[in-house]
Design a protein that fits this description.
single chain; 372 residues; alpha/beta; 9 helices; 31% helix; globular
Amino acid sequence: MSKRERECEDNEESASITPKKRKLSHGNSEARGSDEKRRLAHDAYTVGWICVLRSELNASRALLDEEHEPLPPAEKDDNSYLLGRMVGHNIVIAFTGSGTYGTNAATQTATHMVRTFPNIRFGLMVGVGGGAPKRPDLNDPLKDIRLGDVVVSATQGSHGGVLQYDMGKWKNDCEFCIESHLNKPPKILSKAMELLQSDHDFGEGKMTHYINEVAVKSTKLRALRDYRFPGRDQDQLFRPDYPHASGKDCSTCDATQMENRLSRELDDAVVHYGLIASGNAVMRSAQRRDELRDAWDVLCFEMEAAGLMDDFPCVVIRGICDYSDDHKHKLWQPYSAVVAAAYAKDLLRVIRPREVENMEAAAKMVEKCELI
């Protein structure tokens, strides 16, 4: 199917869905002002989107095509929600708050979300993560993982895209054996990721366009100034055996200890697909990072995804904001949150709303897992 045919079909689907959404809205839509938010019913939302940091929430919010009125959560649901529409899909953005980290917290967030919004079909875990860079590629700089790139969880061997590196058992009192077997993402997401890869190969993706949209908004909203590209000179990868000098940034670190990497022709974010390492502790050790990278071929580290994969059909999308070492700082967090959200929106762009509606509700999967 050509790109034009796909767009026409998507427009037809959006047109067929719009009247249903108007029926769910409260009040007279004709009489409402253009700036007034629509109010839909809980069952109008089919895509769940989870983020933790305020920078992740702001990046996601900046890419909504339309923001909706909030709805009351179900009883005992302490999540905060932002509702809206994005490329034809009604989405629920669940925000857990910066003080809520870890795999168990993510599980709780998803469980509450699908009870409050029972028609959610799948989820996107969207935010930032720490990269696990290999030795610099001397032939193709696009193969290097760099700050501002995106890592997307993808099936690798017997792993469904996420490795819980703190789950396992001790062997011989000195060796920890990882035992992690988490589910794969649903077929609709795996298929969409492959289609989006093809779009990006042919320069037909919209990810860069969405990143630029946020950059334009940042010129009008003072709070979004930090969400612009920080500059490639701020991307510093130090050798694994060189410790951080002192301070909140690397201004006092020895620049001669940085890895020599080829320059890229463009500053556009590069998307990498593979295994994401997830655990309950922040990774800030270059030595431990490299051990897990070499043993499992992981591309990045984060703290929530392992709590979702078995109970909630989803894919994990991480913008790389540091290199998981003790040189870690927060300069790249806002921009990296933007690139992750831009990829997520581009992924939704290639998924037809009608396909989503035909999936089984995620709440049923959660119920099945609770019975096991």
